[in-house]
Structure formats: structure tokens, C-alpha cells
Amino acid sequence: LPDRQTRFEQAVVPHLDAAYNLARWLTRNDHDAEDVVQEAYLRAFRFFDGFRGGDARPWLLAIVRNACFTWLRDNRPAELAGPLDEHGRDALDSAEAPGPGPEALALGKLDRRMLNEALAALPAQFREALILRELEDLSYKEIARVIDAPVGTVMSRLARARRLLAQSLRVIAVASEPGAHR
Amino acid sequence: VKPDEAAKLLAAYVDGQLDAARSAELEAHLAENAASRAACERLRGLSAAIRDHATYHAAPAGLRARIAPAAPRRPTARRTVFWNFARLGASFAGVALLTWAVAIAVLRPGADDLIEREVLAGHVRATLGNRLIDVVSSDQHTVKPWLSARLNFSPPVNDFSGQGFELAGGRIDYAGGQPVAVLVYKRRQHVIDVFVWPAAADSGARRSEARGFNVEQFARGGMRYWLVSDLNSNELDDLAQLLASRAAAP
Questions:
Q1: What is the pLDDT of residues B177-194, one digit of tens each?
Q2: Alpha-carbon gap, residue A94 to A99, rounded angstroms
Q3: Contacts of A51 in chain B (CB under 8 A)
Q4: Residue B240 CB-density burial (10 A; 0-12 exposed, 13-18 middle, 19+ buried)
Q5: Does residue A135 surpass a pLDDT of 70?
Q6: Cα(A65)–Cα(A36) distance, integer angstroms
Q7: Do B67 and A41 touch (CB under 8 A)?
Q8: Which pLDDT belongs to residue A92?
Q9: How far is B214 from chain A (nearest CA, A)?
Q10: Which of chain A's residues have a Cβ under 8 Å away from the Cβ of B11?
Q11: Nearest to B46 among A38, A42, A105 (CB)
Q12: Contact at CB, B46 and A102, closer than 8 angstroms
């Protein structure tokens, strides 16, 4: 039987890109993302005995994700503050209710910069849901494992994230239109 | 269903997270509801925009070296860490290549699986409800113009009563992301749906069986044909041969 070290290298190390991508999107800078990932890998190695086999990616991403939120709490508390939980009928919900739907979205005009900025501006919970779904292509069940929440919450977060993103993209697209001063 | 729930269901469908039965239900709903179809397209567009444009931050090379000490090796083995990683890297490249090759081989019939599900759902829906035939006629000169007027192509329509397959009529259904023609044939007590839409290239006949129905598909003369019925596969193939022979004739 291969030793613990070898099993760790085979199961967990291959997901380094996924780990870094998530951390980079949550911390929003290279330096802190590297630190958080290194810390997460230390934890992953320590808790590797708790890994029950199967796909190590959601398991690892859950650790990375928790390390990111700890980092955010310590270093960017303002980002996590605010009534952002989907269970409380918060201010954001009522504020966006009359807003334009995604139907106004001009996807043809999108470029990389606009999309990256709009994604980066989303609240962390919604940003992570979209990153895990669209960039890591995780299933709802896997995302639920990563964020330690029921699948229903995953679905609500994704719906909210997409609505928020579509709205901000529309705002950006309109603002950058040459004839948009009316 | 509350609008909120409907939106989540639609998102789950676009995300590929519904099981086959619920997908089929939703597709039936989509076929009849233009607003939902538009919402579905918007979701797909947004998803594609993220996948195409959002930056995927791959780990910098330095980080790979930094996580190595996360799992300290025994001193004797330490100097081989680099080569272990190199070897690991090479084997991952191998695995990636293999995965890619397998994915291509496995995913290619994926489109067909999806269409098979759609035509099956269409057939079941039509036979369960009373929407089997929109234009009831055994006269090909009635059915063909009716279909042509409602589609942006004109499917070949032939009656094969002489060979035991009576043309009963036609309807419009939705498959492969577009409206398609359905020719309805009868043989004894069996109903056979023939889904027809334009195809770029010919392809040979392929038979399959799903949920107790027999399915046969081929492309000939610029059209793709999908036959679905509870008729036995040999007789279904007879009809496929007849359709193919007419499709080949100028």
C-alpha cells in the first residue's frame, strides 16, 4: 500500500490550480491567495486521514474555502459584514426587486475586463458559488459539500449571484456605451 | 409552482443538474412556453460568458514548490522531491491526455443521447396527451404543405400504405434546439413517430432501445430521421429502409 505521503501527492496535489483559482477569486490578490493556499495545504495534509477517498477536489476546496473566509474575517471584515444571508429578507433583496432583469443584458458587448470586474465585485458568498459552478464545473452536490450548506442554499446563492451579476454587467455595458447620456 | 421555484428549476436544467425524468418534464414545458425558452437562453448566455471570459487563475510555479514542504519527506528522500514532482507532473500530463482522449470518445455520442431523450419525450408526450397529430391526413399532399408552412424547411412526406405503414398525419415538435417535423405512421395498433429535420451530412442507421421503445436514426438526402415506436425493431427498420429509399431518390 502506498504511504500517506504518496497518497496525498496523488489525490490532493493535482488540484492545486483549482485551490489557487478559488483562493485568488476570494482574496482578490495573488500574494494573499498564495499564503492562504499554502496554509490550506498544510491543513489538508494534517487532516488527510479524514479524507474518505473518492474525488479529493471538493474535499480540498472545502478546506481552501474555509481558510479564505477565515482570512477575509481577519483582514477584510467589511466584505463579510452586511445583511447578505439569503435567509434574511435583507436590504439588498428589496433594493434589487424593481431593478432590470437579465433580459437587458448585452452579452455581445462583454469583454474579459468587464466580466472579471463584475465578478470580483460580487459579495464573497455569491462570487464563490459562481466560481465553483462555472469555472470549476462542480455539481450542486459538490458545491454543497464545499460550502457546507444544503443543496437548496446552493441553488438560492447561484440564482442570486446570477441576478446580481447580470444587473451589474448591464450597468457596466450601459455606462460604457458611447451614446448613453440621456 | 412559484416563480422562484420555476426559476431555480430552469437554472438546474441549464446547469445539467436535473435527472432525466425532470429534464423531460421541463423540456415539455419549454416546448410550449416561449418566455421560459428565452429565460433559458439568457441563463445559457450568462453561463457561457463567465466560462469564456472570466480569468482562471492557475497556480504560479513558485506555489508548487511552496506546498511541497506541506508534506515533509524523510531526509533521505528530500533531495528527490523535485524529481518526484517532475514525475508527478509527467504522469498528470499523461492522465490529462488520456482523459481528453476518453472524453472525446465518450462525449461524442452525448449529443445523440440528448436528442434520443428529446424524441422519446416527444413521442411519449404525444401518445399520452391528445396531441399526437396536428394535421390528420393520409394524403401526403396535405401533410407536406402543412408542415412546410410552419417550418423553415420542407420535409419529404410519403405514404407507405402499400407496404403496411399508413401515413396518419403530422405535427410539429421540438428537438435538438429547433422545431422539427414529425410524421406519424400507423402499423396495426402501433404508432410510429418519425422526427425529421435538416442534416449536413449523411450517416448510417443506428438502432437503440430506451424505456421499452425502439429507436432508429439515420441521415440521408439532407435530412436526419429519428424513428420512435413501441413497434418491434425489425419492422421499425423496414420503415426506416422505406424512408431512406425515398430520401435517396431525386
A1: 888 999 999 998 889 999
A2: 10
A3: none
A4: buried
A5: yes
A6: 9
A7: yes
A8: 42
A9: 32
A10: 155, 158-159, 162
A11: A105
A12: yes
Instruction: Report the distance separating Cα B15 and Cα B53, nearest Å.
Output: 18
Grid coordinates given for B249: 431518390
Strand pairing partners for A55?
A: none
What's at A46, amino acid-wise? R
Rounded CA gap, B157 and B201, in Å? 20
Query: Which residue type sits at B228?
Result: V
Neighbours of A25 (CB within 10 A): 25
Please name every residue paired with B193 in a beta bridge, in sequence order, or none if there are none: B184, B228
Q: What is the pLDDT of residues B133-161, one digit of tens each?
A: 877 888 888 888 889 888 889 999 999 99
Residue with C-alpha cell 425493431?
A: B233
Q: What pLDDT score does B193 carry?
A: 95
DSSP string, B14-53: HTT-S-HHHHHHHHHHHHH-HHHHHHHHHHHHHHHHHHHH
**pLDDT for B186:** 92
Which residues does chain B have within 8 Å of residue A163's beta carbon, measured at their own beta carbons?
none
Cβ separation of A107 and B49 shorter than 8 Å? yes
Burial class (CB in 10 A: 0-12, 13-18, 19+), B221: middle
Alpha-carbon gap, residue A7 to A13, rounded angstroms: 10
Kindly give the pairing relationship between strand B190-198 and strand B223-229.
Answer: antiparallel
Q: Cβ contact (<8 Å) for B67 and A38?
A: yes
Tens of pLDDT, residues A9-45: 888 988 999 999 999 999 999 999 999 999 999 999 9
List strands edge to edge, sheet with B190-198.
Answer: B135-136, B166-175, B178-187, B190-198, B223-229, B213-220, B203-210
Closest by alpha carbon to B66, among A7, A33, A72?
A: A33
Assigned C-alpha cell, B126: 404525444
Task: Take residue B45 and report the three cell numbers written for it.
Answer: 448566455
pLDDT on residue A124: 95
pLDDT in tens, B7-58: 888 999 999 998 888 888 888 888 888 988 988 988 998 998 898 889 999 9
CB atoms within 10 A of CB A153: 19
Q: So what's the pLDDT on residue A102?
A: 46
